[in-house]
Amino acid sequence: MSSNPNSAEGTTAPQEPRLRKAEAADAAAITNVFLASRAAAMPYLPRLYSDEQTLAFIEAVVLPGSTVWVAETGEKPEIVGFAALDGTMLDHLYLRPEVRRQGIGSALLATVKEASPYELSLHVFQRNEAARAFYERHGFTAGEFNDGSRNEENEPDVTYHWTAR
Fold first, then answer.
1. Which of 34, 69, 77, 90 is the most buried if burial means most Cβ atoms within 10 Å?
2. Residue 140 has what pLDDT?
3. pLDDT of residue 38
4. Model pLDDT, residue 1
5. 55 membership: H or E segment, kind and range
6. When comparing pLDDT for 30 and 1, which is higher?
7. C-alpha angle 43/150/104, rounded to 5°?
8. Beta bridge partners of 68
9. Element (H, E) at 41
10. pLDDT of residue 99
């Protein structure tokens, strides 16, 4: 039994993440976070690309086309999350499943808000209730609901918006 009555068996204590700008050498670790997060949080999504194709997308599109931050934890730093900002569009914010609800996503989002201090938008799958609740807790409001025709997965999504007060 865990010595902390409020923690689940086998969970680790939350760690303060170290955030930094991503580098090209981080592509494999970012890809691993992306794949693990999507598999755990959205198992209903079709798997459209192989791991190798996903890595190529991170290397050729995400890293050169966006401002990307990574979150690291541990004595030997390990990437456990990342966020990618393209202008005022938050294209990606993903965490390894085992580090959810430890403040890492909030820390990444705060960094993104510093980089785009007036407004942000993002798309979330409508069925991704955990992500929707996360963004709503952080001041985002749901805007346009879409039938899925604008994404490759053909999964209904919603656009969220945040503006500085």
1. 90
2. 98
3. 96
4. 34
5. helix 51-57
6. 30
7. 50
8. 84
9. helix 27-41
10. 87
> Is residue 121 a part of any domain in this protein?
yes
For the chain, the domain total comes to 1
Measured between alpha carbons, how far is 95 from 30 in angstroms, rounded to an integer? 9
Domain span holding position 149:
18-163
| Contact between 83 and 36 (Cβ < 8 Å) | no
For 101-133, give the DSSP string.
Answer: TSSHHHHHHHHHHHHS-SEEEEEEETT-HHHHH
Locate tokens 């808000």: which residue? 113
69 membership: H or E segment, kind and range: strand 67-73
* 11, 144, 155, 163 from 147: Cα distances, Å: 37, 10, 7, 25
Residue 155 inside a domain? The answer is yes
Q: How far is CA 103 from CA 1, 17, 50, 107, 109, in A?
A: 24, 8, 30, 6, 10
CB 135 within 8 A of CB 122: yes
* Secondary structure E strands in 87-156: 89-95, 119-125, 141-146
The model's pLDDT over 102-160, given as tens digits with 9 standing for 90+, comes to 899 999 999 999 999 999 999 999 999 999 999 999 999 999 999 999 999 999 999 99
pLDDT in tens, 12-36: 455 688 999 999 999 999 999 999 9
In a domain, 7, yes or no: no
Per-residue model confidence (pLDDT) at position 16: 82
Residue 65 lies in a domain: yes
